[in-house]
Amino acid sequence: MKLDPSQTIPTASSKAENWIQWHKDLKKVFGKKKANSIWLYAWAKRGGVKSSANTSSLRDYMDGQGVNVTTTSLGELSDAVGNVLDFGLGIGKIVIIGGLSVVGLILISILIRLFKNSNQPLNISAIPIPQLPQSK
């Protein structure tokens, strides 16, 4: 029994993975050339370019199938930034968390000094500030 891809057409709110799987299902039934035509027609009718399914992974997959899923320059820029962030996310998290930790420690030490000596004026120069390593 053949699969009927007309029963599983993705919607405008479908994920990229659904569109990719639907294309694979179409290829099994109709072959690549016809599948590409049907897929592009549905993609255009369902507003695919403007949907959240229009991801770099979907465009990469469809590019490999010989289908150019056009996007705006803003979409391409967004993909580029997203790819850089995905690549550097681990390092970025460490830098952000580390920086926030240092700021938090400084604020805590200021608050401790304020409440410890609440009757005395605050001497900012006495607050320990972490020093960055000197470059040679």
Question: What report would you give on this structure?
Answer:
Helix 1 packs antiparallel against helix 2. The mean pLDDT is 76. With 136 residues, the protein is mostly helical. The chain has helices at 16-30, 32-45, 56-64, 73-116.
The gist of it:
By secondary structure, this protein is mainly α. It has helices at residues 16-30, 32-45, 56-64, 73-116.
Radius of gyration: 27 Å
- Low-pLDDT sequence parts: none
How much helix is in the residues? 55-70%
Summarize the biggest pleated sheet.
none
Strand content: under 5%
Structural class determined from secondary elements: mainly alpha
| Outline | rod-shaped
Tally of separate helices? 4
Q: Mean pLDDT, as a whole number?
A: 76
Number of strands: 0
